[in-house]
Amino acid sequence: MPRTRREFLRLASVAPFAVPALRASGESGVVSVSLEATEVWTSVGDRAALVYTFNRQVPGPVIEARAGDEVRIVFRNSLSEPSNLHFHGLHVPSTGSADNIMLEAEPGGTIEYRFTIPVDHPSGTFWYHPHIHGSAARQVSRGLAGAFLIRNEADSVPEIEAAPQAILVLQDFAIDASGRVIEPTQMEKMAGREGSLITLSGMDRPTLQMNKGGWLRLRFINASASRFYRLQVEDHSMLQIATDGGLVPVIEPREELLISPGERAEVMIRGDREAGDYRLLNLPYSRGAMGTVNGLDYQKVEVARIRYIEPSVDSWDLPERLRDPQILGAPSVRRTMQLGGGMGSMGGGMAMGGGMAFTINGRTFNENRVDARGTLGAVEEWEFINSTAMDHPMHIHTDPFQVIDPSTGAPIPVWKDTLLVKAGSRTRVRMALRDYSGLRMFHCHILDHEDLGMMGTLYANPSE
Ligand code: C2O
Ligand code: CU
Ligand code: CU
To answer: Ligand 2 centre and the CA of 445: distance in Å?
Structure first.
Protein backbone atom coordinates (compact mmCIF):
# COMPACT_ATOMS: atom_id res chain seq x y z
CA MET A 1 0.00 0.00 0.00
CA PRO A 2 1.71 3.25 -1.10
CA ARG A 3 1.89 5.92 1.54
CA THR A 4 -0.06 8.41 -0.56
CA ARG A 5 -3.09 6.15 -0.82
CA ARG A 6 -3.18 5.80 2.94
CA GLU A 7 -2.99 9.57 3.30
CA PHE A 8 -5.63 10.18 0.70
CA LEU A 9 -7.97 8.03 2.71
CA ARG A 10 -7.54 9.99 5.91
CA LEU A 11 -10.64 12.06 5.33
CA ALA A 12 -12.59 14.13 7.77
CA SER A 13 -15.11 11.75 9.24
CA VAL A 14 -17.48 11.79 12.14
CA ALA A 15 -17.46 9.54 15.16
CA PRO A 16 -20.59 7.49 14.53
CA PHE A 17 -21.22 6.44 18.06
CA ALA A 18 -19.86 7.19 21.47
CA VAL A 19 -19.14 3.73 22.85
CA PRO A 20 -19.00 4.14 26.62
CA ALA A 21 -15.82 2.19 26.92
CA LEU A 22 -12.22 2.37 27.82
CA ARG A 23 -9.78 1.43 25.14
CA ALA A 24 -6.71 -0.21 26.54
CA SER A 25 -3.88 -0.42 24.10
CA GLY A 26 -0.29 -0.05 25.23
CA GLU A 27 2.48 1.41 23.13
CA SER A 28 4.97 -0.90 24.78
CA GLY A 29 3.59 -4.14 23.44
CA VAL A 30 1.78 -4.84 26.69
CA VAL A 31 -1.95 -4.36 27.13
CA SER A 32 -2.83 -4.16 30.82
CA VAL A 33 -6.44 -4.19 31.85
CA SER A 34 -8.30 -4.51 35.13
CA LEU A 35 -11.77 -5.96 34.93
CA GLU A 36 -14.03 -6.16 37.93
CA ALA A 37 -17.26 -8.14 37.72
CA THR A 38 -19.81 -6.55 40.00
CA GLU A 39 -23.57 -6.32 40.40
CA VAL A 40 -24.63 -2.67 40.40
CA TRP A 41 -27.44 -0.35 39.43
CA THR A 42 -26.56 1.22 36.13
CA SER A 43 -28.30 2.36 33.02
CA VAL A 44 -29.18 -0.22 30.43
CA GLY A 45 -30.62 1.57 27.45
CA ASP A 46 -32.72 4.26 29.07
CA ARG A 47 -33.60 2.14 32.10
CA ALA A 48 -32.01 1.90 35.49
CA ALA A 49 -31.35 -1.77 36.18
CA LEU A 50 -29.56 -3.99 38.65
CA VAL A 51 -27.28 -6.00 36.38
CA TYR A 52 -23.87 -7.64 36.23
CA THR A 53 -21.17 -5.34 34.89
CA PHE A 54 -17.49 -5.23 34.08
CA ASN A 55 -16.08 -2.02 35.61
CA ARG A 56 -19.62 -0.84 36.36
CA GLN A 57 -20.61 -0.60 32.71
CA VAL A 58 -22.66 -2.57 30.19
CA PRO A 59 -21.09 -3.86 28.06
CA GLY A 60 -17.58 -4.09 29.51
CA PRO A 61 -14.73 -1.94 28.17
CA VAL A 62 -13.43 -2.52 24.68
CA ILE A 63 -10.07 -4.26 24.89
CA GLU A 64 -7.83 -3.71 21.94
CA ALA A 65 -4.51 -5.46 21.34
CA ARG A 66 -2.16 -5.76 18.41
CA ALA A 67 -0.80 -9.02 17.09
CA GLY A 68 2.36 -9.69 19.09
CA ASP A 69 1.17 -7.86 22.20
CA GLU A 70 1.23 -9.41 25.61
CA VAL A 71 -2.14 -9.16 27.34
CA ARG A 72 -2.37 -8.96 31.12
CA ILE A 73 -5.80 -8.89 32.65
CA VAL A 74 -6.43 -8.73 36.35
CA PHE A 75 -9.94 -10.07 36.82
CA ARG A 76 -11.58 -9.36 40.15
CA ASN A 77 -14.79 -11.15 41.03
CA SER A 78 -17.01 -8.96 43.19
CA LEU A 79 -20.12 -11.01 42.42
CA SER A 80 -21.62 -13.32 45.01
CA GLU A 81 -21.01 -16.38 42.80
CA PRO A 82 -17.89 -17.87 41.13
CA SER A 83 -16.93 -16.31 37.82
CA ASN A 84 -14.10 -16.14 35.28
CA LEU A 85 -13.25 -15.00 31.75
CA HIS A 86 -13.11 -16.59 28.34
CA PHE A 87 -11.59 -14.88 25.30
CA HIS A 88 -13.96 -15.98 22.58
CA GLY A 89 -12.30 -16.66 19.23
CA LEU A 90 -8.75 -15.76 20.19
CA HIS A 91 -6.05 -18.20 19.13
CA VAL A 92 -4.16 -18.31 22.43
CA PRO A 93 -3.43 -21.20 24.83
CA SER A 94 -6.41 -22.77 26.57
CA THR A 95 -4.31 -23.73 29.58
CA GLY A 96 -2.31 -22.13 32.41
CA SER A 97 -3.12 -18.48 32.96
CA ALA A 98 -4.25 -17.92 29.36
CA ASP A 99 -7.74 -18.69 28.02
CA ASN A 100 -8.27 -21.38 30.63
CA ILE A 101 -11.95 -21.66 31.49
CA MET A 102 -11.16 -24.16 34.25
CA LEU A 103 -9.88 -21.24 36.33
CA GLU A 104 -12.53 -19.91 38.66
CA ALA A 105 -12.51 -16.90 40.96
CA GLU A 106 -14.58 -17.30 44.09
CA PRO A 107 -16.50 -14.24 45.31
CA GLY A 108 -13.86 -11.69 46.32
CA GLY A 109 -11.17 -13.59 44.44
CA THR A 110 -8.98 -12.58 41.51
CA ILE A 111 -7.42 -14.28 38.51
CA GLU A 112 -4.46 -12.86 36.61
CA TYR A 113 -4.68 -13.76 32.96
CA ARG A 114 -1.61 -13.45 30.83
CA PHE A 115 -1.06 -14.48 27.22
CA THR A 116 0.53 -13.28 24.01
CA ILE A 117 -1.38 -12.62 20.83
CA PRO A 118 0.55 -14.49 18.09
CA VAL A 119 2.27 -12.19 15.58
CA ASP A 120 0.28 -13.80 12.77
CA HIS A 121 -3.07 -13.52 14.56
CA PRO A 122 -5.67 -12.09 12.17
CA SER A 123 -7.25 -8.71 12.82
CA GLY A 124 -10.81 -9.02 13.90
CA THR A 125 -13.70 -8.65 16.27
CA PHE A 126 -13.52 -11.04 19.19
CA TRP A 127 -15.07 -10.83 22.65
CA TYR A 128 -14.85 -11.86 26.28
CA HIS A 129 -17.41 -13.23 28.71
CA PRO A 130 -17.58 -15.50 31.77
CA HIS A 131 -17.54 -19.26 31.19
CA ILE A 132 -18.70 -21.06 34.32
CA HIS A 133 -20.57 -24.24 33.42
CA GLY A 134 -24.06 -23.98 34.90
CA SER A 135 -24.08 -20.19 35.21
CA ALA A 136 -22.86 -18.96 31.83
CA ALA A 137 -26.37 -18.02 30.66
CA ARG A 138 -27.19 -16.19 33.88
CA GLN A 139 -23.96 -14.21 33.97
CA VAL A 140 -23.87 -13.28 30.28
CA SER A 141 -27.59 -12.45 30.11
CA ARG A 142 -27.18 -10.14 33.09
CA GLY A 143 -24.65 -8.12 31.14
CA LEU A 144 -21.17 -9.64 31.35
CA ALA A 145 -19.64 -9.28 27.89
CA GLY A 146 -17.23 -6.97 26.09
CA ALA A 147 -15.51 -6.54 22.74
CA PHE A 148 -11.90 -7.68 22.26
CA LEU A 149 -10.43 -6.26 19.07
CA ILE A 150 -7.23 -7.46 17.45
CA ARG A 151 -5.27 -5.28 15.05
CA ASN A 152 -2.63 -6.57 12.72
CA GLU A 153 -0.92 -4.29 10.21
CA ALA A 154 -0.29 -7.31 8.01
CA ASP A 155 -3.93 -7.76 7.11
CA SER A 156 -5.28 -4.26 7.53
CA VAL A 157 -7.07 -2.73 4.56
CA PRO A 158 -6.67 1.07 4.48
CA GLU A 159 -9.98 1.58 2.69
CA ILE A 160 -11.68 -0.11 5.64
CA GLU A 161 -9.55 1.45 8.35
CA ALA A 162 -10.30 4.93 7.00
CA ALA A 163 -14.02 4.57 7.68
CA PRO A 164 -15.66 5.58 10.95
CA GLN A 165 -16.66 2.50 12.90
CA ALA A 166 -19.21 1.51 15.48
CA ILE A 167 -18.62 -1.48 17.75
CA LEU A 168 -22.05 -2.90 18.40
CA VAL A 169 -22.32 -5.43 21.21
CA LEU A 170 -25.80 -6.93 20.86
CA GLN A 171 -27.36 -7.80 24.22
CA ASP A 172 -30.87 -8.41 25.47
CA PHE A 173 -32.19 -8.01 29.00
CA ALA A 174 -35.26 -9.34 30.79
CA ILE A 175 -35.92 -6.58 33.33
CA ASP A 176 -39.08 -5.97 35.35
CA ALA A 177 -40.68 -2.61 36.14
CA SER A 178 -38.46 -2.19 39.21
CA GLY A 179 -35.29 -2.70 37.16
CA ARG A 180 -34.54 -6.19 38.44
CA VAL A 181 -33.69 -9.14 36.23
CA ILE A 182 -36.57 -11.59 35.72
CA GLU A 183 -35.58 -15.20 36.41
CA PRO A 184 -36.35 -17.45 33.43
CA THR A 185 -38.85 -20.29 33.75
CA GLN A 186 -37.81 -23.89 33.05
CA MET A 187 -39.40 -23.59 29.61
CA GLU A 188 -37.47 -20.43 28.88
CA LYS A 189 -34.24 -22.10 29.90
CA MET A 190 -34.93 -24.98 27.61
CA ALA A 191 -35.67 -22.67 24.72
CA GLY A 192 -32.83 -20.37 25.71
CA ARG A 193 -33.74 -17.26 27.69
CA GLU A 194 -34.42 -13.98 25.91
CA GLY A 195 -35.16 -10.49 27.16
CA SER A 196 -37.36 -7.91 25.49
CA LEU A 197 -34.94 -5.00 25.96
CA ILE A 198 -32.39 -5.06 23.14
CA THR A 199 -29.30 -2.89 23.47
CA LEU A 200 -26.41 -2.07 21.16
CA SER A 201 -23.31 -1.38 23.20
CA GLY A 202 -25.58 -0.53 26.11
CA MET A 203 -27.89 1.78 24.19
CA ASP A 204 -31.53 1.41 23.33
CA ARG A 205 -32.10 2.40 19.70
CA PRO A 206 -28.98 4.57 19.33
CA THR A 207 -28.53 6.95 16.41
CA LEU A 208 -25.36 6.21 14.45
CA GLN A 209 -24.09 9.08 12.41
CA MET A 210 -22.32 8.95 9.09
CA ASN A 211 -21.22 11.49 6.54
CA LYS A 212 -23.43 11.69 3.51
CA GLY A 213 -21.46 10.05 0.73
CA GLY A 214 -19.08 8.33 3.14
CA TRP A 215 -18.72 4.89 4.64
CA LEU A 216 -19.76 3.46 7.98
CA ARG A 217 -18.27 0.25 9.38
CA LEU A 218 -20.47 -1.74 11.77
CA ARG A 219 -18.83 -4.41 13.90
CA PHE A 220 -21.53 -6.65 15.38
CA ILE A 221 -21.00 -9.08 18.24
CA ASN A 222 -23.91 -11.25 19.32
CA ALA A 223 -23.34 -11.29 23.08
CA SER A 224 -26.88 -12.38 23.91
CA ALA A 225 -27.32 -15.63 25.79
CA SER A 226 -29.82 -17.00 23.25
CA ARG A 227 -31.33 -14.33 21.03
CA PHE A 228 -30.63 -14.39 17.30
CA TYR A 229 -30.49 -11.14 15.32
CA ARG A 230 -31.59 -10.90 11.73
CA LEU A 231 -30.55 -7.43 10.71
CA GLN A 232 -31.42 -5.23 7.80
CA VAL A 233 -30.67 -1.59 7.01
CA GLU A 234 -33.51 0.24 5.30
CA ASP A 235 -32.68 1.05 1.67
CA HIS A 236 -29.04 0.02 1.99
CA SER A 237 -27.25 -3.19 1.37
CA MET A 238 -24.65 -4.28 3.86
CA LEU A 239 -21.28 -5.22 2.42
CA GLN A 240 -19.94 -7.95 4.64
CA ILE A 241 -16.18 -7.60 5.09
CA ALA A 242 -15.52 -9.86 8.06
CA THR A 243 -16.89 -12.63 10.19
CA ASP A 244 -15.71 -14.47 13.32
CA GLY A 245 -12.12 -14.99 12.18
CA GLY A 246 -11.54 -11.59 10.57
CA LEU A 247 -11.67 -10.49 6.95
CA VAL A 248 -13.40 -12.56 4.31
CA PRO A 249 -11.47 -12.96 1.02
CA VAL A 250 -14.13 -11.22 -1.07
CA ILE A 251 -16.83 -8.77 0.04
CA GLU A 252 -20.32 -10.27 0.20
CA PRO A 253 -23.29 -7.93 -0.32
CA ARG A 254 -26.15 -8.81 2.04
CA GLU A 255 -29.70 -7.58 2.22
CA GLU A 256 -29.98 -9.14 5.64
CA LEU A 257 -27.62 -10.64 8.15
CA LEU A 258 -28.42 -13.45 10.58
CA ILE A 259 -26.14 -13.47 13.62
CA SER A 260 -26.57 -16.29 16.13
CA PRO A 261 -25.20 -16.11 19.69
CA GLY A 262 -21.40 -15.91 19.79
CA GLU A 263 -21.03 -14.96 16.12
CA ARG A 264 -19.61 -11.71 14.80
CA ALA A 265 -20.09 -9.92 11.50
CA GLU A 266 -18.62 -6.72 10.12
CA VAL A 267 -20.29 -4.77 7.36
CA MET A 268 -19.68 -1.53 5.48
CA ILE A 269 -22.55 0.78 4.57
CA ARG A 270 -22.22 3.44 1.94
CA GLY A 271 -24.08 6.70 2.45
CA ASP A 272 -25.23 7.02 -1.12
CA ARG A 273 -28.93 7.68 -0.53
CA GLU A 274 -30.95 10.83 0.08
CA ALA A 275 -30.02 12.71 3.26
CA GLY A 276 -32.08 11.40 6.15
CA ASP A 277 -32.51 8.69 8.74
CA TYR A 278 -32.58 4.97 7.98
CA ARG A 279 -33.61 2.29 10.43
CA LEU A 280 -31.50 -0.70 11.41
CA LEU A 281 -34.16 -3.37 11.80
CA ASN A 282 -34.22 -6.70 13.56
CA LEU A 283 -36.47 -9.04 11.59
CA PRO A 284 -38.44 -12.01 12.90
CA TYR A 285 -36.62 -15.31 13.11
CA SER A 286 -37.83 -18.61 14.49
CA ARG A 287 -35.05 -20.74 15.91
CA GLY A 288 -37.17 -23.85 16.30
CA ALA A 289 -40.19 -25.26 18.03
CA MET A 290 -39.33 -24.07 21.49
CA GLY A 291 -37.21 -21.16 20.44
CA THR A 292 -39.75 -18.40 20.25
CA VAL A 293 -40.88 -17.63 23.73
CA ASN A 294 -40.88 -13.96 23.12
CA GLY A 295 -43.50 -11.99 21.22
CA LEU A 296 -40.80 -9.78 19.78
CA ASP A 297 -39.71 -12.61 17.57
CA TYR A 298 -42.70 -12.06 15.36
CA GLN A 299 -42.21 -8.36 14.81
CA LYS A 300 -39.82 -6.25 12.87
CA VAL A 301 -38.26 -3.88 15.38
CA GLU A 302 -36.03 -0.88 15.07
CA VAL A 303 -32.80 -1.43 17.01
CA ALA A 304 -30.87 1.62 15.80
CA ARG A 305 -31.03 4.45 13.32
CA ILE A 306 -28.43 5.61 10.84
CA ARG A 307 -28.39 9.34 10.21
CA TYR A 308 -26.58 11.10 7.40
CA ILE A 309 -24.93 14.32 8.46
CA GLU A 310 -23.04 17.07 6.68
CA PRO A 311 -20.48 17.56 5.41
CA SER A 312 -20.93 15.17 2.59
CA VAL A 313 -17.65 13.56 1.64
CA ASP A 314 -16.36 11.84 -1.44
CA SER A 315 -16.41 8.17 -0.85
CA TRP A 316 -13.82 5.79 -2.14
CA ASP A 317 -14.11 2.27 -3.44
CA LEU A 318 -13.29 -0.80 -1.43
CA PRO A 319 -10.79 -3.26 -2.90
CA GLU A 320 -12.27 -6.34 -4.50
CA ARG A 321 -10.02 -8.72 -2.59
CA LEU A 322 -9.59 -8.22 1.13
CA ARG A 323 -7.46 -11.23 1.91
CA ASP A 324 -5.83 -14.17 0.13
CA PRO A 325 -8.10 -17.18 0.46
CA GLN A 326 -6.64 -19.99 2.55
CA ILE A 327 -8.04 -23.50 2.25
CA LEU A 328 -7.48 -26.28 4.76
CA GLY A 329 -6.18 -29.55 3.32
CA ALA A 330 -7.69 -33.00 3.53
CA PRO A 331 -8.55 -34.19 7.04
CA SER A 332 -6.77 -37.07 8.76
CA VAL A 333 -9.41 -37.36 11.48
CA ARG A 334 -13.20 -37.37 11.15
CA ARG A 335 -15.66 -37.05 13.98
CA THR A 336 -19.41 -36.95 14.31
CA MET A 337 -21.12 -34.73 16.84
CA GLN A 338 -24.73 -35.75 17.31
CA LEU A 339 -26.71 -32.96 18.96
CA GLY A 340 -29.60 -34.12 21.09
CA GLY A 341 -31.77 -33.40 24.02
CA GLY A 342 -34.52 -31.16 25.19
CA MET A 343 -37.40 -31.88 27.46
CA GLY A 344 -37.46 -35.28 29.11
CA SER A 345 -34.17 -36.41 27.65
CA MET A 346 -31.78 -38.59 29.63
CA GLY A 347 -34.71 -40.90 30.24
CA GLY A 348 -35.89 -38.84 33.18
CA GLY A 349 -38.62 -36.51 32.12
CA MET A 350 -39.84 -33.47 33.96
CA ALA A 351 -41.72 -35.59 36.47
CA MET A 352 -38.47 -37.12 37.67
CA GLY A 353 -37.13 -33.79 38.81
CA GLY A 354 -35.64 -31.67 36.09
CA GLY A 355 -35.14 -33.98 33.20
CA MET A 356 -33.93 -31.19 30.97
CA ALA A 357 -30.66 -31.87 29.28
CA PHE A 358 -28.88 -31.20 26.04
CA THR A 359 -26.30 -33.63 24.80
CA ILE A 360 -23.50 -34.18 22.33
CA ASN A 361 -23.23 -37.83 21.27
CA GLY A 362 -25.74 -38.70 23.96
CA ARG A 363 -23.73 -37.28 26.85
CA THR A 364 -23.91 -34.12 28.93
CA PHE A 365 -20.76 -32.16 29.77
CA ASN A 366 -18.25 -33.64 32.18
CA GLU A 367 -15.09 -31.64 32.72
CA ASN A 368 -13.26 -34.77 33.89
CA ARG A 369 -13.95 -36.68 30.70
CA VAL A 370 -12.08 -36.22 27.42
CA ASP A 371 -14.55 -36.58 24.57
CA ALA A 372 -12.09 -36.33 21.71
CA ARG A 373 -8.32 -36.74 21.54
CA GLY A 374 -6.51 -34.98 18.75
CA THR A 375 -2.94 -34.19 17.76
CA LEU A 376 -1.44 -30.82 17.00
CA GLY A 377 -0.80 -30.37 13.31
CA ALA A 378 -3.68 -32.62 12.26
CA VAL A 379 -6.61 -31.44 10.19
CA GLU A 380 -9.93 -32.66 11.57
CA GLU A 381 -13.34 -32.72 9.98
CA TRP A 382 -16.39 -32.71 12.23
CA GLU A 383 -19.96 -33.27 11.26
CA PHE A 384 -22.58 -31.70 13.49
CA ILE A 385 -25.87 -33.55 13.17
CA ASN A 386 -28.78 -31.68 14.68
CA SER A 387 -31.66 -34.07 15.13
CA THR A 388 -33.49 -31.76 17.52
CA ALA A 389 -36.30 -29.33 16.69
CA MET A 390 -34.18 -26.34 17.72
CA ASP A 391 -31.29 -24.47 16.17
CA HIS A 392 -27.92 -24.86 17.88
CA PRO A 393 -25.09 -22.39 17.15
CA MET A 394 -22.02 -24.56 17.74
CA HIS A 395 -18.77 -23.00 18.89
CA ILE A 396 -15.25 -24.44 19.09
CA HIS A 397 -12.54 -22.85 21.22
CA THR A 398 -8.92 -22.05 20.30
CA ASP A 399 -8.77 -22.87 16.57
CA PRO A 400 -11.05 -21.42 13.90
CA PHE A 401 -12.70 -23.68 11.33
CA GLN A 402 -13.95 -23.60 7.76
CA VAL A 403 -17.40 -24.77 6.77
CA ILE A 404 -17.64 -27.47 4.11
CA ASP A 405 -19.74 -26.50 1.12
CA PRO A 406 -22.16 -29.43 0.81
CA SER A 407 -22.38 -29.08 -2.97
CA THR A 408 -18.63 -29.40 -3.60
CA GLY A 409 -17.33 -31.08 -0.44
CA ALA A 410 -14.63 -28.39 -0.28
CA PRO A 411 -14.07 -25.91 2.55
CA ILE A 412 -15.31 -22.34 2.11
CA PRO A 413 -12.28 -20.07 2.71
CA VAL A 414 -13.85 -18.08 5.54
CA TRP A 415 -12.76 -18.50 9.17
CA LYS A 416 -15.50 -19.12 11.69
CA ASP A 417 -15.58 -20.16 15.34
CA THR A 418 -19.35 -20.31 15.82
CA LEU A 419 -21.74 -21.77 13.30
CA LEU A 420 -25.48 -22.08 13.20
CA VAL A 421 -26.55 -25.72 12.82
CA LYS A 422 -30.24 -25.39 12.07
CA ALA A 423 -32.91 -27.69 13.49
CA GLY A 424 -32.94 -30.98 11.63
CA SER A 425 -29.82 -30.18 9.59
CA ARG A 426 -26.22 -31.33 9.44
CA THR A 427 -23.05 -29.38 8.69
CA ARG A 428 -19.41 -30.32 8.35
CA VAL A 429 -16.54 -28.12 9.44
CA ARG A 430 -12.79 -28.54 9.05
CA MET A 431 -10.07 -27.22 11.34
CA ALA A 432 -6.37 -27.62 11.97
CA LEU A 433 -5.29 -28.08 15.58
CA ARG A 434 -2.47 -25.60 15.95
CA ASP A 435 0.12 -24.49 18.47
CA TYR A 436 -1.53 -25.21 21.80
CA SER A 437 -1.80 -28.60 23.43
CA GLY A 438 -4.23 -29.30 26.23
CA LEU A 439 -7.93 -29.26 26.90
CA ARG A 440 -10.34 -27.16 24.83
CA MET A 441 -14.11 -26.91 24.82
CA PHE A 442 -16.79 -26.98 22.16
CA HIS A 443 -20.44 -26.24 22.85
CA CYS A 444 -23.73 -24.72 21.84
CA HIS A 445 -23.61 -20.94 22.29
CA ILE A 446 -27.25 -20.77 23.36
CA LEU A 447 -25.79 -20.58 26.81
CA ASP A 448 -28.73 -22.24 28.53
CA HIS A 449 -28.06 -25.27 26.32
CA GLU A 450 -24.38 -25.19 27.28
CA ASP A 451 -25.34 -24.97 30.96
CA LEU A 452 -27.75 -27.88 30.46
CA GLY A 453 -24.97 -30.08 29.14
CA MET A 454 -24.39 -29.37 25.45
CA MET A 455 -20.62 -29.05 25.74
CA GLY A 456 -17.72 -31.41 25.16
CA THR A 457 -13.95 -31.48 25.52
CA LEU A 458 -11.16 -32.00 23.05
CA TYR A 459 -7.69 -32.80 24.31
CA ALA A 460 -4.96 -31.77 21.87
CA ASN A 461 -1.79 -33.83 22.28
CA PRO A 462 1.54 -32.33 21.21
CA SER A 463 2.63 -33.58 17.78
CA GLU A 464 5.14 -36.46 17.85
CU1 C2O B 1 -18.15 -17.62 23.76
CU2 C2O B 1 -17.02 -21.27 25.10
O3 C2O B 1 -17.65 -19.43 24.44
CU1 CU C 1 -15.28 -19.35 22.93
CU1 CU D 1 -28.33 -25.18 21.56
So the answer is: 9
